[in-house]
Structure formats: C-alpha cells, structure tokens
Design goal:
The chain is built from 22 helices and 17 strands. The protein is an alpha+beta fold. It has 3 domains: about 220 residues, Glutamine Phosphoribosylpyrophosphate, subunit 1, domain 1; about 220 residues, HUPs (Rossmann fold); about 80 residues, no CATH class. A 6-stranded antiparallel beta sheet has the order 2-3-1-9-8-10. The mean pLDDT is about 95.
C-alpha cells in the first residue's frame, strides 16, 4: 500500500514549486515508509510513497512504458491473469500495479473494467498530456482532489493537500453539521470547501488541468429478477447459493493472501471475520508446501460487562490453529493516545471503532505488514438491525434508515450556529434517490450503505488507522466475485427468521461449527460512554471551553452532557464533541499532538 499525489496542469499554469511536491511526499510518508519518488513530466507532476508488499526489489513507482506513467495506491488481485492475457512483453517488473499501466495502454479510460482489486490510480498519457484518475468501485482506497493555482491537485489524503499549502484550512459549516449528526460526510464534498473526493468507481479524464469527462463503475450492478440464483434439479436455491458462496470466498481469500510479506487478520469474534479466518484455515490445510502460521488479533476492553466477543474470537482462533492475541484496551491507553488517533482521521468520521482499530494496527505492525479484515460483510449480506426493519411492511413498523441525528432532541447545539439550517440528511437522501432502482426495500437500504456509509466511514476508518502504522488493509468480502453472489441473493437468503447474514451463517455452520453462527451475538461496542463518564467533569469542562465547541453548542449543556455520558445517546453525542474538539485542533488549527487528551485540550 502506498500514498499518491500530484498535479495535472497546462502550459498556462505556473510551475508547481518543488517544495510543494516535497511537502506532499512528506505528508504521505506514513503511507509509504519504504521510499518516495517525485517525477515531473510535461503536463503532470507525480508523487509516490511506497509500502513494499509485492516485488519488493523491483516495484518502485512511478512505473512507465512508451505511452504512459502510473502511480498507484492499491493491489490488483487479478494481476497474474492480466499478465497471462497480455503476454510477458507488456511488463518489465513484477509489480501487480503494472497490469493497470499495461491495460491503460491498450484500453484507454476503459481499463478499470478489467481490474479486480482495491486501488486509487493516477495515469499520465505522455503523448497527449492527459491525466486519468481512477478509484475502485467500493472506495476501499481513498483519493481526493482540489483546484489550485498550479492545476488540479490530487492526493491520497486531504491532510497532504493541506500541509502542502494547496488548500486553505477552512470548514464548510453544512458539512460539519452533517458530520456531527450523521457521524460522517457523504458524497463528493468533504468538510474542507476546497477538497472533493473522487467517488468510488469513478474515473476522471483531466485535460489541461480541467476535468473533461467522468465515468462511473458501480460496486453492485443492478440485479434483475432473471439474475437471481436459479433452482436447479435436485437442489434448492439455498444449496446453489451456498456452493457459489463457497467458491467465491475461497477464491477471494486466496487472492487477498497474495503478498511477499507476512500477513494477519483482525478477528472480532463476529460472523464476517470468522468467515475470512475459516477460509484462511482451509487454504492453509490444503497447501502443498509449508506456510507461515496464521496470526490473529482481537481487542477487548477494561470495562466490566462491556459488549465484546474476545472469548469467542479466542476459541475460534484456537479451532483454526491460529496464533492469537487479545489486546486489552484500557481507559488510560485511550486518553493517552486519543489525540493522535483522532489526528489520523483527516477526513472526519466520528466512528468510535477507530479506537480499537488504531491500537490493533499498532500491535500488528510489529509482526506483519498486511491485515485482512471482515469489513463489508454487514453491508453485502445484511447484518444490521436496520436491514431487518426494512423487511417489514410499513404497517408493521418499517423504519426509515438514518432517520435521526446524533444530537436530535438533546438540546445541546445552538440554534444560531453556522449550518443550523442544514438538512443534514441531504446527502443520504440523494443516495436514497440514486438507489431507488433497487428491487426491494431491503436491497435499497443496502445500496445506500454501500454507496455512502461503507466508503465514507468504515473503509475510511480502516485505511487511516492502519496506514498510520504503515499497514496495508485488505477486505476479502468486498471482492467482485463475492459481491456478485451477494447481489443475486433473494431477500430470504439475506434475512431469514429474523436473522441477518443468513447465507454467511449457513456457510459457517458447514465449515466452522465452532463459530456457533446461530448463537446470539454479544456484539462489539466500544465503551466510550463509560470511559467519558468516569472523567466527565474534567473532560466536559475542557471540551466546553474550546472555541470550536462554543461556536456550535451551549457550554453549560456540554458539561452536563459529559456527566451523563454513561447513557447511550448522551455518550454518543459526548464522543462526537470530544472527537470534533480534538480533530479541529489537529486539522483546522494545525496544532501538533504533544500530550494526552487532557494536556491537548488544556492548551
């Protein structure tokens, strides 16, 4: 995994000063600690920082051929098949990203249709001067852009554009309102007015520093009735689905294990990561040569009765023959490191799962360079309670997903705050409209989450927390071969007898009964409210006095909120304000992280 950045410009643009390119490389060095390269070409400046995963000796970027130059942040899992199709003459290195360069040379802007992987790619056509930016269909890998005096700038992280001075550190009040209420910012816009996202599955053509065309490859193509899994003679639809799922999971995990460095797995004890571990264990047993031991890590918490599945994860890892470690995350650890955890979330999402993810990444980075995880299973196979609600008829209590904001009804935010008149649901409502073609209410709810919640919260969290420690994250459940099975399932194989992820549960029951897939699950919830409440008086006072908080909330009500943070809604709201106060100091005021949460907020 790597960091990419650069500028697409024309002859009329002033040349970008070299210190700006150096600043981009420095800002992305945590994403690519194994080397940095800057290349200036006619029409484009390209910056790449490398985390070596495949072809350790020969895979430095930029990669060039006679027609184009490429920089990429990603993994192309069908690289072997592409090389076989195009022939050895098209390649000069063993880098999997070179297959994207060879495809672009042959296919032009249509090249992403042939890629299987996660990627953010910039290509410069050295003949025409055109720059092409592409992002994978699920948005696993990030890519941002901004119009500047030097042309169209792009980077793997907004922080790089800010630190290079290409974009001002100002906030969009409407985006901030959405972040506070929804916990992430959907769509193309970010919280920084000058920075936009390249959307998942999007390819942009840039000529003379300006976007001239945009193409979109959907993560899940529209499913028609004829696409649904057919009943075959002597088998049920469920039997057929299980067989297809088994083939897809084994194929995907095998592809995601391809690396020239050690890899491991984050194991929550839930269904999704259990499926990945089960496939990894089966592949290891089937191997015809010795393979390294499986490494798995799970987080637990120091709050008695906190919901977690650490014991279930340990038992599952033991049954799979994995070397397993449970990492205890304590309140003291969180307060010591929270400023730097929040600082890594330059594109803000107030998902408190960043806390265990960051600590697990820090620990795993001591032993491996690649982490597999179960992200995407809930969205593809219907794991959330809101999906079960979506299957009900309207008269039986069907509820609209994302209908209530975090602060609705709490009377914490000022009525006269900037952005108060914002419809914070506007981004989600636009996604709902765009996904209205889905066949059923359940499929529509999934499509909205896959379009917005997945790339702009869950995958963003995974990317930033792992890359903060120089780790590559891989998501085998978000693979085209798995997604193709998931999209074709009838509703009763997604949610069945009140249980979501029905097909994954049935698959686990066949291949890993130790996972107890039909047993009630305790869940995995970070006890952030309990931690905040224990220091509520001190934290509430510190947060309430921050200028960025006083601008949007009543200080006396903020202090009371933190004292009541052991309640579910109040704890979520208090965490959102604590996150925002720390985030604002790091990314708007550009203050370095120098101490724990109390020291940071006291300055």
């Amino acid at each position: 995994m790597c960091g990419i950045a650069g500028l697409a410009h024309d002859a009329a643009s002033p040349p970008c000063p070299l210190p700006v390119l150096d600043a981009l490389a420095e800002a992305l060095s945590h994403r690519g600690p194994d080397g940095a390269h800057i290349r200036r070409e006619s029409g484009a400046d390209l910056v790449h920082t490398r985390l070596s995963i495949i072809d350790l000796a020969g895979g430095d970027q930029p990669l060039s051929n006679s027609a184009a130059t490429l920089i990429a942040n990603g993994e192309i899992y069908n690289d072997p098949q592409i090389r076989h199709t195009l022939g050895p003459a098209a390649f000069t290195t063993g880098s999997d990203c070179e297959s994207a360069l060879a495809l672009f040379t042959r296919e032009g802007v249509e090249y992403p249709r042939h890629l299987r992987g996660m990627y953010a790619i910039a290509l410069h056509d050295t003949g025409t001067g055109e720059v092409v930016l592409s992002r994978d269909p699920f948005g696993i890998k990030p890519l941002y852009m901004a119009e500047t005096a030097y042309g169209l700038a792009f980077a793997s992280e907004p922080a790089a554009l800010l630190r290079a001075g290409l974009v001002q550190r100002t906030l969009c009040p409407t985006a901030r309102e959405t972040m506070l209420q929804l916990r992430f910012v959907p769509g193309e816009k970010t919280i920084f007015p000058g920075i936009r996202r390249v959307l998942p599955g999007e390819t942009l053509r840039i000529i003379n520093g300006h976007i001239t065309a945009r193409y979109r490859q959907p993560a899940l193509p529209v499913t028609h009735r004829s696409d649904l899994l057919p009943r075959t003679q002597g088998s049920t639809t469920e039997d057929r689905a299980l067989a297809l799922l088994d083939t897809a999971l084994m194929n995907s995990v095998s592809a995601h294990e391809r690396a020239d460095v050690p890899f491991g797995l984050f194991l929550s004890g839930g269904i999704d990561s259990a499926c990945v571990l089960t496939a990894m264990s089966r592949l290891k047993r089937a191997a015809t040569h010795p393979t390294p031991p499986l490494h798995t890590w799970t987080a637990s918490f120091d709050v008695p009765g906190a919901a977690n599945e650490a014991e279930a994860a340990r038992a599952l890892a033991q049954a799979a023959g994995a070397e397993h470690e449970t990492l205890m995350v304590t309140r003291a650890m969180v307060w010591r490191h929270l400023p730097e955890i929040v600082a890594c979330m330059d594109d803000p999402a107030t998902d408190y799962a960043i806390i265990p993810t960051w600590f697990l990444a820090r620990r795993a980075a001591q032993d491996v360079r690649v982490i597999l995880s179960g992200e995407g299973g809930d969205e593809l196979f219907c794991g959330y309670g809101r999906y079960r609600a979506a299957t009900r008829p309207w008269w039986a209590g069907r509820k609209r997903p994302w209908r209530r904001g975090v602060f609705d009804g709490l009377d914490i935010l000022r009525a006269d705050r900037p952005g108060a008149d914002t419809d914070w649901r506007a981004g989600i409502a636009a996604a709902e409209q765009a996904c209205a073609h889905a066949a059923t209410p359940l499929a529509r709810a999934q499509a909205v989450d896959i379009a917005e919640w997945l790339p702009n919260d869950l995958l963003l969290k995974l990317d930033r927390c792992l890359m903060a420690h120089g780790l590559e994250g891989r998501t085998p459940l978000l693979d085209p071969v798995v997604a193709d099975v998931a999209r074709r399932l009838p509703d009763n194989l997604r949610v069945h007898n009140g249980q979501g992820k029905w097909l994954l549960r049935r698959w686990l029951a066949q291949h890993a009964p130790a996972a107890r897939p039909f047993a009630p699950k305790q869940g995995f919830t970070v006890p952030i409210g309990s931690w905040i409440a224990q220091d509520g008086q001190t934290l509430g006072a510190l947060v309430a006095k921050q200028d960025c908080i006083a601008e949007i909330a009543h200080p006396e009500r903020v202090r009371a909120l933190f004292m009541a943070a052991d309640k579910t809604r109040e704890g979520t709201a208090a965490w959102g304000l604590l996150f925002y106060a720390l985030w604002h100091r790091a990314h708007v005021r550009a203050q370095p992280v120098t101490g724990d949460v109390f020291e940071t907020l006291a300055v």
